[in-house]
């Protein structure tokens, strides 16, 4: 069986980490694409020279030409400008929308059968635009945000309880912004939901509220520390988990930015929801019953995503 092909559009901080993880996990051969001459080539060569030491088999190459994406099975898009300190995700809209237009055209031409994972911010609006620009089926284009947001939530919870991260499961809904909705009721430690742990005296509601707040601001916390860029290890690991579920037909249920056609009462919008990812792309959306508080939070988050989508339509009337 021929190896799978993974195309990484954007060979920056996340792109390089994606290539390393895809290689180490032997998910397939990796093509790094970027507009910067030499950067994807240099990173690919450096990583190819890592393979003998780490002992993985994957062909890694770097390119400035969309042609090299030909026949890719998975495309992960990080092309664009990352958030700088003091810059909101929304400030990035205009710049990164143009990038999505170019990337969408490249994917449509060279790998229209691929499963596409978008990471570029502002995430929910960019994945919406990328799907429209590429014309790929909506179930084959997703955004990576919820796995990362939930991973942050899981880490903070494991730290609070002093338990293994493996036994902490967490769910976040909504857009990838400060109004995302970490779902306390659906998050568990060793299978025990968080509200039960409050009753059992393991933690307090105040501490949980502080963790929810830190989760919402998790991206900004890293930006403030790094000063010259945004998070890249955990975002890359999160997108690789999604790619692996598709390539291996694992049918994992992961929080992803998926296209909604009436689920959760939302239409023609990408927003974070639990979805099953398998060989068919997004195979199922888990249309959860929400409490009135959760619903209010989710609706607020959807409204801000819709605001960004409307702004995209104003900037690029072709999308309207
Ligand atoms: N086509 C291809 N690549 C592009 C384009 C384009 N039109 N425009 C920019 N790039 C490349 C840049 O040259 C750079 O190498 O995208 C890469 C982005 O890499 P970084 O600046 O290192 O950003 P990174 O930290 O990887 O984050 C990428 O993910 O989390 C989001 O907000 C973040 O949108 C950003 C993205």
Task: Please summarize the sheet with the most strands.
Answer: 6 strands, parallel
What are the distinct ligands in this entry? adenosine-5-diphosphoribose
Span between termini: 42 Å
Can you identify the CATH superfamily of the largest domain? Lactate dehydrogenase/glycoside hydrolase, family 4, C-terminal
> Given the C-alpha coordinates, what overall shape results?
globular
List keywords for this structure.
Malate dehydrogenase, binds adenosine-5-diphosphoribose, 43% helix, 19% strand, 2 domains, NAD, 14 strands, alpha/beta, Rossmann fold, NAD(P)-bd_dom_sf, six-stranded parallel beta sheet, three-stranded antiparallel beta sheet, 320 residues, single chain, L-2-Hydroxyisocaproate Dehydrogenase, Chain A, domain 2, Lactate/malate_DH_C, L-malate dehydrogenase (NAD+) activity
Architecture overview:
- By secondary structure, the chain is α/β, with parallel strands linked by helices.
- It has 11 helices and 14 strands.
- The strands form 4 sheets. Strands 3-2-1-4-5-6 form a 6-stranded parallel beta sheet. A 3-stranded antiparallel beta sheet has the order 7-10-11. A 3-stranded antiparallel beta sheet has the order 12-13-14.
- The mean pLDDT is 95.
- Adenosine-5-diphosphoribose (APR) binds next to α1 and α4.
- One of its GO terms (biological process) is tricarboxylic acid cycle.
- Catalyzes the reversible oxidation of malate to oxaloacetate.
